[in-house]
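Below is how a single chain appears once it has passed through the pipeline. First comes the sequence as given, then the structure the pipeline wrote out for it. We keep one example in the README because the format questions we get most often are answered faster by looking than by reading.
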Amino acid sequence: MDMEIDYFVVVSDRFTNYHGLEHCIAYSSVIEIIENEDKQNTGFLIIGQGISDEQVAFLNAKIKEKNSTFIISDSSIAKGGTANKKETHKHYKENVLITSPKGRDGHFTMNLLVNERGELLQDHFTGIIFKVCC
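Resulting structure:
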């Protein structure tokens, strides 16, 4: 019997507008599922907006500790790809909104990162809408 592997975009607990969207799941819900060793919930975890590097590290440790069947996708956020102080003017990592730039043929791309503890959300949370799930 083939097992269908699903994917979930893990978003900050603060991003409550996205929790009901298909394939979106709150960070605390994933931790709870892993803690309860619910093997019926499995799949790829795509690290979405609002999740810090520390939360990704904790999630990885929890998956390993509980021998969970979840797999974290190989994403810039999951690998701690937040741009550094030299690449931005930000003094605190949680305020950086981009990944390190990747260049090709004179063009550069960066991914958007939003940390739930960042200055942007402390001041403007109610007016920001991001599409983080498919």
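Residues 6-127 form one domain.

See the next section for the split statistics.
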